[in-house]
TrEMBL record, chain A:
Family membership noted in the UniProt record: Belongs to the bacterial solute-binding protein 1 family.
GO aspect biological process, one term: maltose transport
Higher taxonomy: Bacteria, Bacillati, Actinomycetota, Actinomycetes, Streptosporangiales
Protein name: Multiple sugar transport system substrate-binding protein
GO molecular function, one term: maltose binding
From TrEMBL, chain B:
Transmembrane listed as a keyword: yes
Record protein name field: Multiple sugar transport system permease protein
Highest rank taxon of the organism: Bacteria
ABC transmembrane type-1 domain sequence ranges: 86-312
Biological processes, Gene Ontology terms: transmembrane transport
Gene Ontology CC: plasma membrane
UniProtKB keywords: Cell membrane, Membrane, Sugar transport, Transmembrane, Transmembrane helix, Transport
Primary location: membrane
Cross-referenced CDD domains: TM_PBP2 (cd06261)
Membrane-traversing stretches: 31-57, 90-112, 124-144, 176-198, 219-238, 291-313
Family: Belongs to the binding-protein-dependent transport system permease family.
PANTHER family: ABC TRANSPORTER PERMEASE PROTEIN (PTHR30193), ABC TRANSPORTER PERMEASE PROTEIN YESP-RELATED (PTHR30193:SF1)
Biological classification of the source: Bacteria, Bacillati, Actinomycetota, Actinomycetes, Streptosporangiales
Amino acid sequence: MPTTTTRRLAAVTAAAGLALAAGCTAGGDRSGQGPASGEKQTIEVWHGWSAPHEVKAFQDAVAGFNKAHPNITVKLVNGQTDDRITNAIRGGSPPDVVSSFTTDSVGQWCQSGAWQNLSPFIAKSGLDLNQFPRAVRSYTEYKGIRCAMPLLADAYGLYYNKKLMKGERPPKTMGELTALAKKLTVRASDGTIKVAGFMPSVQYYEHQVQHLAPQFGVTWLTAGGRANFSGDPAFQAYLKWNKSLIDWYGYDNVKKFLRSMGQEFESSNPFQKGRTAMAVDGEWRTKFIQEEAPGLDYGTAPVPVSDDRASAYGGGFITGTVIGIPRGARHAPAAWEFVRYLTTDTGALVTFANALGNVPSTIPALSSPKLTLPPQFRTFLDVFKNPNSSSTPPTPNGNDYVVRFEKFTQEEWEPGKVGDLGRALKKLDGEVDDSLKLAGG
Amino acid sequence: MASGSLRLPLPGTRGGTAAARARRRRRLRTLAFLSPWLAGFGLFFVYPLAATVYFSFTRYNLFTLEYVGLDNYTYLLHDRDAWTAMRNTLWLVAVLVPLRVLFGLGVAQLLTRIKRGAGVLRSILYLPYLVPPVSATVAFVFLLNPGTGPFQTVAARLGIPLPDFFNDAAWAKPGLTLLGLWAVGDVMIIMLAALLNVPASLYEAAAIDGAGACARFRHITLPTVSPVLAFSAVTGVIETLQYFTQPMVAGKVASGRADLPGVQYSPGYPDGSTLTFPQWLYDQGFRQFNMGYACVLALVMFATAMAFTVFLLRRFRAFAGEEAQ
C-alpha cells in the first residue's frame, strides 16, 4: 500500500512530467518563460547580415530599442546561417532571437516547434497582424502556426544600365528582352562576350530559377504538394527561352563570360562594372550601387514576363527576412519585445530599410514619407505590392525542389545534355518526390 | 574460457583459491589501468556508432523522430548525388593519395641528398601544410581565376594556355590534387624521418655488391620505409574519404556566389565535379535535416574506410613479407 510520501512523490513526478510534455510540444505557450520584460537583462540576437553597412544598419535600428527599453541590453551576433541556428536550438543553447534571410526553413521550424509559436505573445500584446500585406503574412506561418514575423522584405526587378541601353526602353516581355539583349551585346573579334545584353544562365548570380521562372507563370507544386515540372508547360517555356539565348551567345562563350566574373557582393559585380546591360537583382543592389558605383547611371523596372502573360507585368519574385524566438530562449518576454519593436515600429523599419536598401514589411512603413531610398527603389515597392508577385511554397525539406531544378538547368539543360525534355522533367519530378518522401512530405 | 577474459566467481562461492584471487586481482588491475581508454572508446566510438546505426532506421530532423525501417537505405540506391559524390571521392582516393605519398617520398629523398641549407629547405617545403585549408584554398582559387587571377593573366601573356582549374568540371579535381600536393609537408616529414633511419651500412654493402641507385632504392629503401608508406597510405585514404573543406570552399569561391542564407548554393561546383561524399552527408544532415539518411551515408563512409584500411594493411603485410624472404 503506498504511503503518503510515495503518493506525494508520484503526484510531483506526474506533474513534472506533464509540465515537461506541455513544454516540449510545438504549440506550448512559453510567452512567460524567463524574466519579465521590465527586469534588467541581456538578450542575444542572431542575424545574417555581414556587410559593414548592413551590420551598422542593424545596430542603428537596435539603438531605438535600447532607448525604449533601457533595462534590456542587446548582444548582436552577425553572419549567422539557417543551419547554425537549427544546430544551436538542437544543442539546447540557442540565442533569444534568431533571424533568417529566407523563408525556406519556416515550414520545418514552425512544424517542429524549433521556433516558438508566437500566437500567445501576439494575443497578449494585442498586435494587429493586418498591418502586414497578405503575401507577407502567408510566408511567415506554416499550416496555421505563426512562428515567425517579417523583418523587411526582398523584391526582385530588372536593373538596366542607361548608357548601354542607348535610349531603349526597358523590355516588358521576354520576347522584347531577348531582342534587346542581342542588340546590346558587344562581342570581341573571336566571338567572346565583352558586354552581355542579358545573361540568361542560372549561374549568373541572381538569375536563379526561382527569380526568372515565375515570370513564365510556373506553378512549382501540384495541389497535393508534389513536383510539377513535367505537368506545367510553363517550365518548358522558361527552359526553352533560357537555352535559345544561351545558344545565341554560344555555350562556351557563356561559360567563359561567367568564369571571368568577380564575386556577387563585391565592387567587381559585372552590372556595376558595365559588363552586363541588363540584370535581374534584388532591391538591395540599389544600396550597393550607391556605395560602390555612385557614378553608375541606371534604371529599374519589373522583370519582363513571357509574351503570353503581358497582363501579369509588374509582378516578380518576393521573399523576406524572418525573425522569431527559438525554443529554449531564456528571456522570451524580452525577446518578444525586441521582435515586436523591430517588426512593427514604423520608425525602426523605415530607418532600417533606408540603411539597408530593403523593402519595409508593414503597410504604414511602405507608405512612410521618411523613406529616403533612391528613385530607382520605387520599382521594388511596386513589385512588392503587385498581386502578380509570388514566392516559392514551403515544403518539409525547404527549397530542395528549387535546388534540384536549378541543378538540372545548370548541369544538364544549359550544356545541351538533355535529349527528351519532357522525359527529363518527369525524371526530375520523381527525384523531387522521392526526396520529399524521405523528409516525411 | 579464453585466457585473458574476465572470470567471475560462481554465485555462492567465496572466490576460489588464492591463485585464482591473485589472477582476478591482476585482471582487475589491468582493467583499472585500461579504464580511461575503455571509457573514451565506449563514449566516443561505440556509442556514436550504435546511435548512428539506430538513427539510420529513422526519419529524424533534429526535432522529431519516426521509425521508417529500410527506407533510408533504399533511397540511397537511387540517390544520384550520393553516387556522384562517391565517384568523385574514390577518384581523389585513387589519384590524390598515391600522388601525395609518392611526391612526399620523392621530396624527402631529395632532401636527404642536400648537404647545405637542408634545414631551411625542409622548413620552406613544410610551411604550406601549416596554412589553414580555407585560406590556402581561397588563395589557390583566386590565383588561378581566369578573369582576375595573376597565374592565368601571366600565362595568357606568354601564350601558354592554362586549364581553367576550379571552373571546368574536367579540371576541378586535378586542381584540388595540385592543392593537395602543394601542402605535402606532413607526408614529406615522416618520409624524411624514415629515410634518415635507413642504416648507411646497407647502402655501402649494396654498392660494394654493384647495386645501382635504382636497385638500392628498390631493395633497401622501399622495404625499410614500407611501414611508413603503409601508414601514409592508410591515413591518406581515411583523410581523403573525409575530404570536405577544400572542395567546399573551392566550389563556393569559384562559383562567385556569396555564402549567405538566401543565396542558393548546392555543393559540387562546377557541375557536381567537386561534390565529395562528406559534403553530401553534410548537406543532407545539416541543410536538409535528413539526419536518418545522413546516418546511412556516414555508415557507408565508415564501411568504405574500413574496407580500404583492411585491404591496404594486408597488401603491405604481403609486401613486407615478400621482402623479408
